[in-house]
Amino acid sequence: MPVAQKLSEVGITIFLKEEGKAMMNFETKQQAVVSLTCSNPLHAESFSKISKSGVVVFLDVSKEDILKRVAKMKVNRISDFKEEIVLKEILNYRRTFYEKFYDMRIICEENENPFSISEKIFKTLNKLDNPFGYVSTRHTTQSGLHQGHMDFKTTLVCGLAKDGGLFVAEEHNFPALTPGQWKRLVGLPYNKIALRILEQWIHPSDLNPQTLNTYIENSYKNEIFSNEDVISIKHLTDNQYILELFHGPTASCKDCSLQLMSKLFLEAVQQDTLKNKKFVILVATSGDTGSAVIDGFSKLESNGSLGVMVLYPKDGVSKMQKKLMINADRKNVHVIEVDGDFDFCQKTVKNIFQDKELKDFLESKYNLSLSAANSINWGRLLPQVVHHTAAYLNMVKTGVICFGDPVNICIPTGNFGNVLAAYYSKKMGIPFQKIICANNENNIITDFMKTGCYFLHGRSLLHTISPSIDILIPSNLERYLYHISGNSTHLVKQYNKSLKDHGCFQVNNQILNRIRSDMYADWCSEEDCLDAILTTYKTSGYLLDTHTAVAKVVADRYQKSTNSKEPMIIASTAHYMKSGDTILPTILQDRQHFKELPLTDMIEIFKELQPSPKPHSKVCEMIKKSQVHYTVCKACENTIKNELLKFVASLS
């Protein structure tokens, strides 16, 4: 009997009940392909049963295509359709059921033909049968072949590979969307974009889409991010646009990734094999990562099995950045001020991870392992891909560009995480024409991209007014070099050995040309940075933080020197309040008066100035809290190891 006839005879309620009964009795055969009706998922019990018997592929088709199809029908085949109900509402309602049970999503282009969709299905099923896993940037066998492919959850827990390398997806396994698929994402809210992007990178056997969606929804709530869209794009001047990444609880771009990464980490450690195990997240921060890690991880219900230890350089963070770390009134958090620079902190963390004797001791005595939450952790890096893709899609949504139009993006460059995430976005199909690395006076990346020589020998880290990018050895550069050299672990190991033995390494011209085709780098002096803050504020009322100002200077120079007409996205990685002790003296031209001004007074002055954007409400609340505690350590690796041991003992 035709569907339309049955529906008209028995009505909606009985039809769905009968259809569900038929589904409950349906037995699938091996190697069978079952085409389900669009109303099958409305009967949850039967659809749950059938979904367990095989792989459910969700053909995510646009509402417009469905409406066109329905309009051509001569009979009513929509089981819950009534004249008084808008069909779009029915489709939105049904989607909530479809989202509950699928294993793999196929994002169908508008007006896509069946043959093209079939190809996508075969490609997706092949991916399901052949999970590619992740490899270390340094790990090879004697034959030169990779070994030890890790699943997603393992990379989260380990943080750093055993051989000291970083986990990556090999470039031939990078996911990519077609322009038609990208267009389907335009106009979606941030959390929906995040789900569709991360589904491409995370195999459903590692983390099913429904669980992933739950964590995404819980990470990007309005209670956590003050901006409804999580990030925002603001027109600054001419063809320059500010990408605001600072609307999270600690006012930096780090919140966009760490709110999600922390929940993914907890999921990973709750596997049966790890349920009774304890973990300490060990983090070196140049300013913003520390407070974001503390906020993300310390809110988790881990029953005392999870601790966070943060190292920050004594003179390498702003007054506000320090306050946000030491004011974090959380259990199982240990904050250490190190009388050294960020590179020492980061090197110490890496050395601790590679200290087998220490790790074995922690394992045997406390059943405890160490992990990382800065951008050396693959689970921290992936969410950063989302905010770069979302930025471009936002510009399409608002009509600034059409999809496919090239744009440039300029990023304050510290540990190279956001730069690498922009590179991954480009590989996925976002048309970033040039990814521009903006350095402060610690301009080793600029020199490297101009000469091909990474020359560290005799170079000392300078303490600048943009401390989050005061870095001479950016960890994620290793990942980029791995990709750009054709997944060559041999070259990566060679570069690292040369850097360790001689304080430098050189890439060949072929690799240098590949780098230059993707990227451009330049640097900014302290004077130019301050001038950019003052000039931008006077001309537009927009207040840049010191890191964003570095990017503004570099973006201006690039556009002038190349006569570039493409839109320029300037990544604003932190709210200006994070560097208020530098910003206020600059715009009010009274450096001496603000030198020792309490942070609470600074906040009141910012409120009186009424700049754009507004003062960060969550930071204002945090500053009012009393100081909890922090420990001061000399720049000695053994001293820091002892602090770690004391902290671990306190968790047991």
What topology does this entry show?
Elements: H1 3-10, H2 12-24, H3 44-51, E1 57-60, H4 63-72, H5 87-98, E2 104-107, H6 114-129, E3 135-136, H7 152-158, E4 167-168, H8 179-185, H9 190-201, H10 209-219, E5 232-237, E6 240-244, H11 254-269, E7 278-284, H12 289-298, E8 306-313, H13 319-326, E9 333-339, H14 342-353, H15 356-366, E10 368-371, H16 378-397, E11 407-412, H17 417-428, E12 432-439, H18 444-451, E13 453-455, H19 477-484, H20 489-502, E14 504-506, H21 509-518, E15 519-523, H22 526-540, H23 546-562, E16 568-572, H24 580-588, H25 599-609, H26 617-623, E17 631-634, H27 637-651
Parallel strand pairs: 1-2, 6-16, 7-8, 7-10, 8-9, 9-17, 11-12, 11-16, 12-15
Antiparallel strand pairs: 3-4, 5-6, 13-14
Cofactor: pyridoxal 5'-phosphate
Family: Belongs to the threonine synthase family.
Keywords: Pyridoxal phosphate
Can you tell me about this structure?
The chain has 652 residues and is α/β, with parallel strands linked by helices. It folds into 4 domains: 3-130, no CATH class; 135-172, no CATH class; 213-250 and 379-591, Rossmann fold (3-Layer(aba) Sandwich); 254-377 and 627-638, Rossmann fold. The chain has 27 helices and 17 strands. A 6-stranded mixed β-sheet has the order 5-6-16-11-12-15, sandwiched between helices. Strands 10-7-8-9-17 form a 5-stranded parallel β-sheet, with helices on both faces. Strand 7 (278-284), helix 12 (289-298) and strand 8 form a beta-alpha-beta unit. Helix 10 packs across helix 11 and helix 22 (526-540) crosses helix 23 (546-562). The longest helix is centred in the middle third of the chain and has 20 residues, at 378-397. It is globular. The N and C termini lie far apart (67 Å).
